[in-house]
C-alpha cells in the first residue's frame, strides 16, 4: 500500500487530460515512504486530541458545576449551563472565519500561533469564579479550537498521498475520540476545575510536536516559496523519492487555477463559480445533518440524558461506554474509508442513525408514560436500562463510522487549492453555527416536545441526511487532491 508514482520523463504532460495524467502517474513504477507522512499526521493530530478533551469536558463538568457550586456558593442553573456549553460553539463559528483567513499565511504557522493561547484559555477556565467568566473562556476556547481542528484537517489532506489520505484523516477523529474518552473517564473523579487543567496541558504537546514537521508543499508553492516547497515534499515522501513530477503537478494546478480565475473576471463571478459554490453546498449540507442528528447532545449532555433514562445504571459508566464505542468505530472507519469508499459508509451511517434515534425516543416516551402512570408494575426499574444504552451505542457507531469523519474529510477533498481556505472557513463556521443552535435549543425543545420528541425529530433529520447523500454527495475515493485541470475539479462536484 501507499504506492506513489514518480514519472521520469522529460517532456511535459500539459496536452493530456487530468484523468490520463493521473493514470500515467499511478502506473509508473516507484514508491514513497509513508512513514514520515504518518509521523506528520500524528504530530498535528494532537490538535484534535486537545479538541476531544474539550468536547468531552462539558458532559461531566456541567453536573460538577451545578453540584459543587462556584465561588461564593453561586448556583449554575440549567439555562446558564446551556449557555456555557453552547458559547464554545458560537466561538468556534467566529474561529472558523478567522482560521480560514489566517490559513493563507500557512497551515503550520497558524497552528503554532494558536496552540499556546488555547492553553491559556483553559487555565482561565480552571480559575473562573463566576458564570460570566466561564462563558467568556468557553467562547475563547471554542474560537481557538475551531482554528486547530479545521487547519489540521486541511494539513493532513495536503500532505498525504491518495492511498492513505482517508486513513490519516480518520486518525484525527481517533485522537479526538481518545480525548473525549479521557475527559469522560477523568470526569468521574475530578471536579470541573481540575478537569480544565488536564485539558490545558494538551495544546502544549501540540506546539512542541509542530516544531518537527514542515509546512505543506501546496501552501508553500501557492505563496511562491519553491525551494521550501521542494524540501517539504522531499521530507514527506522520503529522501530517496523522486518528487519532480508531483511538484510539477502541484505547480501546474496552481497556474491552471490562476488562468481559470483570470478568465472569470470579477470577484463576484468567481465567488459564484461552481468550483466554490458546489463544494460549499455539499459540505455545508453534510455539516447541517451532522450537527442536527443529536451527536452534540451525547458530548455535552451525556450524563444529564442518561440520568433521565437510566433507572439503576451509573450514568458515568454509560458515558464512558459511549466514548469507548466511539473510539472503536473511528478506528474501524479508518480501516474502511479508503477501501469501501465514502458513499457506502455515509449511506450505512444514515440508515443506522435513523433507527437508533427513533429507538431512543421511543424508550424515552414509554419510560415517561410508565413513570407517570398510577398502575406501576413491580418489575425491576433498572431492567430496561440496556435499551437506551444500546440505542446510544448503535447511534455512536454509525455516526463515527460515516458522517463524522467523512464530512470533515470532504472539506479538504472537494475544494480546489485556491479556495481551500475560504471553503474550509465557510463550511466549518456553518457547522459550528448549527452546533450552537442545536446545543442551545436542546433544553428548550425538551421542555416543549419532551426528550422523546427531540429524538424523533433527530431521527427524521437522519432520514433526510440519507436522501441528501444519495442525491448530491460525490465519491472521492482515490482521487488526487492536486488535480491539474480546473474543469476536472468542477466535475467532481456535480450531481451524479
From TrEMBL:
The keyword Repeat does not apply. Keywords: Glycoprotein, Membrane, Transmembrane, Transmembrane helix. The chain crosses the membrane at residues 38-58, 83-103, 110-127, 133-156, 168-189, 195-213, 318-337, 344-366, 386-411, 455-474. PROSITE patterns: MFS. It is found in: Membrane. Gene3D superfamilies: MFS general substrate transporter like domains. It holds the Pfam family Sugar_tr. Its main location: membrane. Residues 40-477 form the Major facilitator superfamily (MFS) profile domain. The keyword Transmembrane applies. PANTHER family: FACILITATED TREHALOSE TRANSPORTER TRET1-2 HOMOLOG-LIKE PROTEIN (PTHR48021:SF34), PTHR48021. This is Facilitated trehalose transporter Tret1-like. The gene is LOC113519993.
Amino acid at each position: 500500500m501507499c504506492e506513489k508514482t514518480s514519472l521520469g520523463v522529460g517532456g511535459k504532460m500539459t496536452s493530456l487530460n487530468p484523468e490520463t495524467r493521473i493514470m500515467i502517474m499511478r502506473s509508473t513504477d516507484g514508491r514513497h515512504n509513508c512513514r514520515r507522512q504518518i509521523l506528520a499526521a500524528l504530530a498535528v493530530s494532537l490538535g484534535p486530541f486537545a479538541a476531544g478533551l474539550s468536547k468531552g469536558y462539558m458532559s461531566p463538568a456541567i453536573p460538577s458545576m451545578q453540584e459543587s457550586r462556584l465561588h461564593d456558593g453561586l448556583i449554575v442553573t440549567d439555562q446558564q449551563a446551556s449557555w456555557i456549553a453552547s458559547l464554545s460553539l458560537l466561538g468556534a463559528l467566529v474561529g472558523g472565519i478567522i482560521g480560514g483567513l489566517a490559513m493563507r499565511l500557512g497551515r503550520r504557522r497558524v497552528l503554532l500561533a494558536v496552540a499556546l493561547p488555547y492553553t491559556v484559555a483553559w487555565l482561565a477556565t480552571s480559575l473562573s469564579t463566576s458564570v460570566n467568566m466561564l462563558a467568556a473562556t468557553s467562547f475563547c476556547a471554542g474560537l481557538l479550537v475551531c482554528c486547530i481542528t479545521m487547519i489540521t484537517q486541511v494539513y493532513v489532506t495536503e500532505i498525504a498521498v491518495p492511498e492513505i489520505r482517508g486513513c490519516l484523516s480518520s486518525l484525527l477523529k481517533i485522537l479526538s475520540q481518545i480525548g473525549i474518552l479521557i475527559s469522560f473517564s477523568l470526569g468521574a473523579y475530578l471536579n470541573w476545575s481540575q478537569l480544565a487543567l488536564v485539558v490545558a496541558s494538551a495544546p502544549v504537546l501540540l506546539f512542541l510536536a509542530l516544531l518537527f514537521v514542515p509546512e505543506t508543499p501546496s501552501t508553500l508553492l501557492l505563496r511562491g516559496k519553491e525551494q521550501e516547497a521542494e524540501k517539504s515534499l522531499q521530507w514527506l515522501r522520503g529522501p530517496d523519492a523522486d518528487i519532480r513530477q508531483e511538484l510539477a503537478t502541484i505547480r501546474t494546478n496552481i497556474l491552471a487555477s490562476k488562468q481559470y480565475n483570470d478568465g472569470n473576471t470579477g470577484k463576484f463571478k468567481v465567488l459564484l463559480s461552481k468550483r466554490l459554490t458546489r463544494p460549499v453546498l455539499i459540505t455545508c449540507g453534510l455539516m447541517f445533518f451532522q450537527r442536527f442528528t443529536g451527536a452534540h447532545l451525547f458530548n455535552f449532555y451525556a450524563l444529564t440524558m442518561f440520568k433521565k433514562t437510566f433507572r439503576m445504571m451509573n450514568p458515568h459508566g454509560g458515558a464512558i461506554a459511549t466514548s469507548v464505542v466511539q473510539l472503536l468505530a473511528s478506528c474501524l472507519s479508518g480501516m474502511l474509508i479508503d477501501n469501501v469508499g465514502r458513499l457506502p459508509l455515509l449511506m450505512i451511517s444514515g440508515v443506522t442513525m435513523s433507527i437508533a434515534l427513533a429507538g431512543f425516543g421511543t424508550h424515552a416516551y414509554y419510560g415517561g408514560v410508565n413513570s407517570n402512570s398510577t398502575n406501576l408494575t413491580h418489575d425491576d426499574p433498572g431492567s430496561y436500562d440496556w435499551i437506551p444504552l444500546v440505542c446510544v451505542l448503535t447511534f455512536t457507531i454509525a455516526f463515527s463510522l460515516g458522517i463524522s469523519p467523512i464530512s470533515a474529510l470532504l472539506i479538504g477533498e472537494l475544494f480546489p487549492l485556491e479556495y481551500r481556505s475560504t471553503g474550509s472557513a465557510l463550511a466549518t463556521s456553518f457547522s459550528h453555527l448549527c452546533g450552537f443552535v442545536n446545543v442551545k435549543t436542546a433544553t428548550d425543545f425538551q421542555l416543549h416536545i419532551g426528550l422523546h420528541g427531540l429524538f424523533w425529530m433527530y431521527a427524521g433529520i437522519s432520514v433526510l441526511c440519507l436522501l441528501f447523500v444519495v442525491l448530491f454527495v460525490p465519491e472521492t475515493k482515490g482521487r488526487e487532491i492536486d488535480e491539474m485541470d480546473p474543469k476536472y475539479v468542477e466535475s467532481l462536484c456535480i450531481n451524479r
